[in-house]
Please model this.
Amino acid sequence: MVRIVFHYAMHLLAPGLIAKIAFKNNWKKAWLIMLLTLLADIDHLFASPFFDLNRCSIGYHPLHSYIAIVIYAVLLFVPRLRIVSVGLLFHMLTDFIDCLWISAQ
Ligand SMILES: [Zn+2]
Model:
């Protein structure tokens, strides 16, 4: 239960904090864009079952693959896509923390 609350707080609230700190001038837009990066979870639809609380997403789903993460990191250097990149990388970090939590069980 703590894991789930932590996970969704990291997905939903932490990007708001990052937006407030890193994108002060347009933090609401930045927060919204970062929330939209949750759409990367659409790749879960290709898995069976599409939702498994105890499956590590990183390295499993296409948009959570290591190659995808490298691409997200490269996007950091494209000014227009920087917020998307931060959102996606933070999304991956959140999912990675979840993986550590799963493996520690
Ligand atoms: Zn994810």
